[in-house]
Amino acid sequence: MSEMLLFSVFIYLIDSILSGVYTWNFLKEKYGKRAVLVAWSVAYFLIQIAVFEMLDDKFPVDKVVGIILNACILLFMQSVFFQKDMQKQLFVTFSYMAGKETVKYMISVFAIVLSELCDKILSHLVAGETINTIEKALVWIKISNVVFVVLWVMLYALLLYGYLHVISKKYVKKNYPLQKQENVFLILPCVAALCISVLIKMMIISVENGMTVIIYDTVPATRFWIPVICALLLSTIVASVILFQKLVQYNEETGKRAILENQVRQMQKEIVEIQDIYADMRGLRHDMRSHIANISLLVKNVAGSVNEELESYIGKMEETVGKLDFTFQTGNPITDIIIHQKGQEAEKKQIQFHADFAYPRKLSIDVYDVAVILNNALENAIEACCKTEGDKQIKLHSYVKGSLFFIEVENDFSEDIVIEKESGLPVSSKENGKLHGLGLSNIQRCAKKYMGDIDIVISDTDGRKKFSLTVMMNGKPAAVI
C-alpha cells in the first residue's frame, strides 16, 4: 500500500468516525447509540472508498462536484440512521463539510514545511555520508513519508475534532426547532467557507509552461495568509453559532421573564381577592363563635341542666366553624393562603401533606417571590404524586441560617426523570415542549434574584422514589432581574 493510499484511508477513517459522533450530537438516532455510530462509521468509510477512490479513477470529479456529492451522501445517511429534521440536517452537513475542507488547507502549510525539513535532513545525511547508498536513501524516504503521513493525519484529526467539539459545545439549545431564516443564517458562513476552499484549491496548484507550480513557492507570504484565512473562516462559523444561541437564549429568557411577571401579577390579584374573602371569614368566624357561646349559655340557663344531645350538636357547630381557620400559621397571610390551598388540594387527592414553614420576616425577601416558589414547587409535587400509586406524601420545610433562607419540598414520584444536560433541570413530561420546565425554571429565577439557587436530589429507597427540591435565597438586597 503506497503512502498516498495509506494517507487517504486514514483521512476517510477519521472523517467517518468524527462525522458520526458530530451528527449524533445534534440528531436523534433511530436505533441504539452504539449501533448507529458503528454502522455510520463503517458505511461512510466504505462509501468514501468506493466513490472517491474506485470510481474517481474512471470518472474524475472536480472539487465542486466532490463537495456536492459528499454533502448528498451525508444527507442520505442522516435520513437512514437518524430521525428526520431537515433544517438541522442541513446545518450539520454544511458545518461539517466546511470544517473538513477548510482544515485541510490550514495544515497544507505544515505539509510543505515538513516536506522541506525532510529534504534538508536527507541532504545533510547525504553530505555527512551517513546515507551513502541508494538503498539507504530509499529507506529514509520511505520512513520519512510514513512519519509525514502519520503527523499530517494526527494534526488533521486534532484540528477537525477541535472545531466540531467547539460547535457541539456552543450549540446549547439542540432541541430548539430551527426556522428556515435561522438555518440560512447558520449555513451561509459554511457555504462561504466551502466556496473559499474551492478558490484556494484553484490557487495553490497551477500549470505554467507544462510544469506544476505551487503558490507556496511562488508567493511565500501565502504560507502565512492561507492558514490565517482558513482559521478566520472557521472562527466565523463558530461565532455565528454562538451569536445564534445567545439570541435563542435571550428570547427564551425574555419569554420566561414575561410569564413569571404575569404569574406574579395574577397571583397578586388573586391573593388580594382571597385576602378580602378570608378577612370576611375571620369576622364571620368570630361572630359565629360568639353566637354559639351565647346559645350554649342560654340553653343552660333555660334548661337548668346539661342536655348531652344539644351539647353534641353545639360541639359539631364549633368544629365546623373551626374549619374556617388556616391549618398552617406561617407568619404571613399570603404564604398562609398558598399553603392552605395546596394542602386542601393534596387532601382531596388523597396525598398526605406535612408542612413546617415559617416566612422569614426579618430577611429582605419579597413575599411574592416566596409565593411563586411555593406555588410552583407544591403544584409540581402534587402533579407528581397524582401519578403515583399507593401511599404518597408531600413534605414542606423551611429554615433560616444567618441571612440564608432555605425551602425544602419532598414528594413521592413514579415516572422516570431525565435531567436536561443544558439547563440541569428535569425534563417535563408535559406535551408542550416549549413550556416544559417553566415551574422549576421560575423557581430558579426567583432564587437567583437573591443570589441563590436550587438543588435537586432524586433517591430510590426500597422501591419508593423521592424527589427533593431545596431552594436557597440570600436575605440581603439583590439586584432585580
Explain what the structure shows:
The chain has helices at residues 3-26, 33-58, 63-81, 86-106, 108-127, 134-170, 180-204, 215-218, 222-303, 308-322, 333-348, 367-386, 438-449, and strands at residues 205-208, 211-214, 352-356, 393-401, 404-413, 453-461, 464-474. 67% of the residues lie in helices and 11% in strands.
Work out the strand percent.
5-15%
The major pleated sheet works out as: 5 strands, mixed
Q: Could you state the order of secondary-structure elements as H and E?
A: HHHHHHHEEHHHHEHEEHEE
Compute the CA-based radius of gyration: 36 Å
Amino- and carboxy-terminal Cα gap: 65 Å
Count of DSSP H/I helices? 13
Total beta strand runs = 7
- How much helix is in the residues? 55-70%
Which parts are unreliable, with pLDDT below 50 for 5 consecutive residues or more? 431-436, 477-481
Strand ordering within the main sheet: 3-4-5-7-6
The helix/strand class is: alpha+beta
